[in-house]
Design a protein that fits this description.
The complex is a heterotetramer, with 2 copies of chain A (about 350 residues) and 2 copies of chain B (about 400 residues). With about 350 residues, chain A is an alpha+beta fold. Helix content of chain A is about 50%, strand content about 15%. Chain A has a 4-stranded mixed sheet, covered by helices on one side. In chain A, helix 4 packs antiparallel against helix 6 (about 210-245) and helix 8 (about 290-315) runs antiparallel to helix 9. Chain B has helices spanning about 5-25, 25-35, 40-50, 70-85, 90-105, 105-120, 235-240, 250-265, 280-305, 315-335, 365-370, 380-395; strands spanning about 125, 145, 150-160, 170-175, 185-190, 195-200, 210-220, 225. The longest helix of chain B has 26 residues, at about 280-305. In chain B, the strands form 2 sheets. Chain B has a 4-stranded mixed sheet with strand order 1-4-5-8. A 4-stranded antiparallel sheet of chain B has the order 2-3-7-6, with no helix packed on it. Chain B has 3 domains: about 5-90, no CATH class; about 125-235, Butyryl-CoA Dehydrogenase, subunit A, domain 2, CATH 2.40.110.10; about 250-400, Butyryl-CoA Dehydrogenase, subunit A, domain 3 (Up-down Bundle), CATH 1.20.140. Chain B has 12 helices and 8 strands. Chain B has about 400 residues and is of the alpha+beta class. Chain B is globular and about 75 Å long. The chains are: A alpha+beta (about 350), B alpha+beta (about 400). The interface of B and D includes residues 279, 280, 281, 283 and 284 of B.
């Protein structure tokens, strides 16, 4: 065992941190510019195999990237377009991955459906074969970072099983309802009314698509844990800084033991989150069932830590923590969104329970 | 002992409930239930309906609209207002400035202000906190210098809820420097139209604008707007503490939220059962919250039914923290009913509230989750309340 | 509504507190002497109707009694013999109640069975009619305060339904395995091997016995809540006293804010317990189902408070809290026993859940 | 990074596991599993078996029995010992006094003590805490006055685990009064047979006797029993902090308890399901504890695999508190499997342990529940650990 970063990993972390830090220092965030910088620095290509045009980075490198995104509250749609949609294209061996890597096209994965919580494997969205190829009808909800320039990947039930469809932007029959999300980003509900696509829009093999999606999703959940950890660490730093400046009753509030112990509990919560995430990372090459349980355990505990750290950061800030002008609130908001983005606490703990727990793991 | 409501109390509850359901427009109750911010005129409309029935200021002196109702009845009224999604009478008006003016104001002040305060014809906001005086309120710096028949006022107030909707602000101001920082503080009423007074919005993390900063630059305030004596402002402010204890636990509000979380969880898909309410973990948290609510309802009634305590009543600190934590837990539960749809249920930041209404009845839930953090911060943070409990009640750290 | 004690109640509380306080001040506790004093002062007769030879006290009076028992860590078997066994005799209208009231006989109720947790209504203990009357075979566990001078009340399944049997002490076929309990009292497992009793040993009406037991049990659970509250209050007092004396780092430890806030949390937990117990008391005359739910809600929350208050009292005492010589430990032990005595937390919360929650209550 | 055990580490784990299961008698492992206090000779027997395989003191210098194993391997060994219900090598011997003598003792002391310490031929107990020096250890008062070639020792030590079983005690004593109370403290080895030394039992709330008070009245201790230099005792004691970090999180022990609570809950009747493990609330708590255990196992390995930090390592404070809290949560879960039978499963108070063994395999659970409170008290209470985290790590309350 060895938990130290390699020299290359240190360099990567520094580079990403510097780049996203520069963007964060800007008063007006520009996610588009961040995305272009990521392209320019090869970060979009980072997680993909070299023979697919990627740089062959592994989960550890992705986690470094995501921690920096979390720490700098970057709004770049890396999780959505690289780690979810991009990973699906890569796992399915689709050429369209090239469009993502060279910046010609951004893709989004439409996973969840109205009223179905996190049940993505049995969509109500259906596709039927027709003369032109397929006709898709249904609805998806809460697709993060989706705008009308994006290509869509849409899982749908068919007579042959679960099929993933790749839809170009602007295709007829698709309507987007884009809404501001609580973290300053946007998310969209999407409706599909007899959307006609050609036969080759169907990605992968129906028999393997559920496993393919599960693998992409597990990788993305692991990455989201890293983002949460980066955000929590920075939020704790901000809180400590504030407590060491803010004076009440003639002393900095950081000198009050009750607040000190709260901050210590936040630190402990973050270390728990980091350790369980390392555990999940170590299980990414395990058989699918064990991999998924490990990832669920991680996201569950990261969620629990996130809620505690987010809420208590606001508490220690006091009134100013409730004002948007204070950075703490934006971290709290992003942490809250990350808690629900790819399975909430209830979802992931239930998954661990169904598997019989972690003692055998 | 008499642990149940008696017949008169039960009849009163029915009477109140019937009045509220019959008279407060459904659109208003629906908005409150969904935790949407209400337009100014709806708030005024609701308070005027309540006031017409004597429900806005029953705790005031009778000559100014009060009723000879027992504290238990007043608590019943407060709970029914909250649990039936009726907007509370504006607390800054009816539980803060009204009783202060009634107790310490001049006859002129009473006649000039009290009827309007009760009827929300005059909207007051509260100017206590300052950027460097939050939990340590006595450190406030805003100054009011007497110059003949007026005060010259300079300084800054912060976290003033609804200052952008209000007509007047009541402020704690420093009229002289004294040894003890609690001294030299006075209580002043200031018309927000006064030149030199500027209100600027503070955007909240719930996506809305309720809070403000109020800046005073050489604002000239008539000396007749001083309440009571100069230098006694701290005492008047403390007089309020524990005065209106009938609704401190927010039990009606928590009940409304918990009824809603139970209802939404009964509709949402579950992880291990058909519905989320069938999922054991959600159900267990909901059940614990309901048990705590029941305990809090009784604690509230114990406070109400007991004679007021001179000075700080320990139970009010418990009511304050427990009430706030339960509202927060209920907000957590509401959030947890939403699953992935939390992302698109609606968030008003940068767009303005109007666009969200009607999209999804749950659009208020995320905002409510974020804004509920305030219950453990404002009005004496939970840390301050625990200091009080440990110090004044348990007398910890004090040798006997 | 009115939560003040009546003048008579104040007098009762003072009398009981003085009497049990005197016993508590004794180095060597003598539960037998406490029981005799309770008899002498009419406290055994307190909860029973006047036409049954009692004093007609209600649940409020019983709670005052039980709070004093908790506060003084009295080992008198009031809960077992008066509120459970005695109440069963009273509800069944049995003459044998007189023996209890005049001190001639102490009775115990045998409620639970091996491996069945708190399922008392469907006992595996069975009775068959025989020539002499009934023959009883089975086993009961964890009967508190039972010794070989006690008469037993034993629920058993019969062809006619649930029958309660009254067994005199020393009857053939009954074996007691008396063990020291963690609270310094004893409890017994009891075995019944073809115990022969006459027909008139059967108490009550099989059709009504479950309701009868439920009513007695609910009253006892409510009373146990009051005992826990008394014990918690005294334990908090002891803890505050200790924190105001014990010095470390040049100050009394009660001056450290982290400990202050912990003590405040203990106070809050106790107030919660008291309020929910008052709620249950107010529901004792409600229909049985609603009464039982209220009582379960109370015991669940009292359990939760007890665990927190007990554990944290030890924590604030530090090392000395782990030593038997320190009074805190004995309170912690009794509170722990009370948590499991008449239904543990899991049992009572599950009961509230099954009833649909408390919002309608 | 290398987040999994490598092949050599996995092979080592199998080797250790096989040795333990083959060589430690079942009766001993059963007693440890059931959390019964072990007879003195069983403890010695177990440690001597471990020592024969080089498993008792692998972290010592090689010349005194240590091994050139990586910290990761040592952590694997510690975990396997715990999770397979093997008695830990006596910590007072192998992780406390042994390393101190090896680092600071004279050659004579090493030869005289170290082999016996490793093999538990000599049993040491620890004399640090005093009645008025608990968390504030530097306030200790026990005095040792140098008189020629010996010390005259007076004072009192408390909470000395196993003093009634031990042969020797190592003490922090005050050899001179200095300005700073951490100075003037020396480290002394005292034979418990010395006249003037008296051990008296402290009964614990778990019903057993492990703890003692040790009184010293004019006990005469040869000066050659001083370890290192006079006045440096505090430094030596601090040297221990964070030295043996391979088993600080008690992960093997918590795992054993959680395996048992899962097993017992699978046998116990449930409230809403057939078994308690099927009851959602119990299962949820069990699952969370398992998830936390997994995190703790990784934290333990992160501490082990990282280079030792000069001074206090923040992660050891986290390991200490998390490890202790998890043992406590596991004890809570074990208790909660018992239902009403908690009352008669067996409690040794006033009767002596022997009578309880064999009655019920669960007889150790209640004792374990009570005694587990110690994990957040002894060895630096959780409050002290949080002070360290807030102060030394987060630097709260310290202006930068």
């Amino acid at each position: 065992m060895n938990f130290d970063l390699s020299e290359d990993q240190v360099l990567l972390a520094e580079m990403v941190g510097r780049m996203l830090g520069d963007h964060a220092a800007n008063d007006r965030r520009d996610p588009g510019a961040e995305w272009r910088d990521c392209l320019g620095q090869g970060l979009i290509a980072l997680p993909f195999a070299e023979d697919q045009g990627g740089l062959g980075g592994g989960h550890e490198e992705v986690m470094l990237m995501m921690e920096a995104i979390g720490r700098n509250l970057s709004q770049t749609p890396y999780l959505q377009s690289v780690l979810l949609a991009g990973r699906v294209l890569a796992l399915a061996g689709r050429m369209e991955l090239g469009d993502l890597l060279d910046g010609a096209q951004r893709h989004c994965l439409c996973l969840y459906e109205p009223g179905q919580r996190y049940r993505w494997a049995t969509p109500a969205t259906r596709a039927e074969r027709c003369a032109e190829g397929w006709s898709i009808t249904g609805a998806k909800v809460s697709v993060p970072d989706l705008d009308d320039t994006c290509a869509l990947i849409v899982p749908a039930a068919t007579a042959e099983g679960l099929v993933l469809f790749l839809l170009p932007p602007g295709i007829s029959g698709v309507t987007l309802d884009i809404r501001p999300a609580p973290d300053g980003r946007t998310a969209a509900n999407v409706n599909f009314a007899s959307v006609i696509v050609p036969v080759d829009a169907a990605i992968g093999d129906p028999a393997g698509n559920e496993a393919l999606l599960a693998e992409a999703l597990d990788g993305a959940v692991l990455a989201s844990c890293a983002e949460s950890i980066g955000a929590m660490e920075r939020l704790l730093d901000l809180t400590v800084e504030y407590c060491n400046i803010r004076e009440q009753f003639g002393a900095v509030i950081g000198s009050f033991q009750a607040l000190q112990h709260r901050a210590a509990d936040m630190l402990i919560a973050i270390e728990r989150a980091r350790s369980i995430t390392i555990y999940a990372a170590s299980m990414m090459d395990a058989p699918a069932a064990r991999r998924s349980v490990a990832v669920s355990a991680a996201r569950a505990l990261v969620n629990r830590s996130s809620r505690f750290v987010g809420q208590q950061a606001i508490q220690l800030h006091g009134g100013i923590g409730l004002a948007s002008e204070c950075a703490a609130g934006a971290y709290f908001q992003r942490l809250t969104v990350l808690e629900t983005l790819l399975g909430d606490t209830e979802h992931h703990v239930a998954a661990v329970e169904r598997s019989g727990g972690l003692l055998a793991a | 002992m008499e642990l149940q409501f008696n017949e008169g109390e039960r009849a009163f509850r029915e009477e109140v409930r019937a009045f509220l359901l019959d008279n407060i427009p459904e659109r208003i109750r629906q908005a409150v239930y969904e935790e949407r911010p209400l337009p100014r005129d709806w708030m005024i409309e609701a308070q005027q309906i309540l006031n017409s029935a004597g429900y806005a200021v029953p705790h005031w002196p009778i000559e100014w609209g009060g009723r000879v109702w027992s504290p238990v009845k007043r608590a019943i009224l407060a709970q029914e207002i909250d649990r039936n999604s009726v907007p509370k009478p504006l607390p800054f008006n009816v539980t803060l400035i009204g009783p202060i003016i009634a107790a310490f104001g001049t006859e002129d002040q009473k006649q000039r202000f009290l009827p309007g305060i009760a009827n929300l014809d005059i909207w007051f906001c509260q100017g206590f906190s300052e950027p460097n005086a939050g939990s340590d309120l006595a450190s406030l710096k805003m100054s009011a210098i007497r110059e003949g028949d007026h005060y010259r006022v300079n300084g800054r107030k912060i976290w003033t809820t609804y200052a952008h909707e209000a007509d007047w602000i009541f402020c704690l101001v420093r009229t002289s420097r004294e040894e003890r920082k609690q001294q030299g503080i006075s209580f002043l009423l200031i018309d927000l139209e006064t030149p030199g007074v500027e209100v600027s919005p503070i955007q909240s993390i719930d996506g809305f604008h309720h809070l403000n900063e109020v800046q005073f630059d050489d604002a000239i305030v008539p000396a007749e707007n001083l309440v009571g004596e100069e230098g006694k402002g701290w005492d008047y402010a403390r007089y309020l503490l524990g005065q209106e204890r009938t609704s401190m636990g927010n039990v009606g509000f928590s009940r409304r939220r918990l009824e809603r979380s139970r209802a939404l969880a009964g509709e949402a898909a579950g992880e291990r059962s058909e519905t989320l309410l069938g999922d054991a973990d959600f159900l267990r948290r909901q059940t614990w919250a309901e048990i705590r609510l029941k305990a809090l309802e009784i604690t509230q009634m114990r406070v109400v039914a007991s004679a007021p305590v001179q000075g700080a009543d320990p139970k009010t600190s418990i009511l304050k923290t427990e009430g706030g934590e339960l509202l927060q837990e209920a907000a957590d539960l509401l959030l947890d009913t939403m699953g992935p749809e939390a992302l698109t249920a609606g968030f008003p930041a940068g767009i303005g509230p109007e666009e969200f209404y009607g999209i999804d009845e749950r659009s208020g839930i995320l905002s409510a989750y974020f804004s509920s953090r305030k219950y453990s911060i404002f009005g004496g943070s939970n840390e301050i309340q625990r200091n009080i409990l440990a110090g004044s009640v348990l007398r910890l750290g004090r040798k006997r």
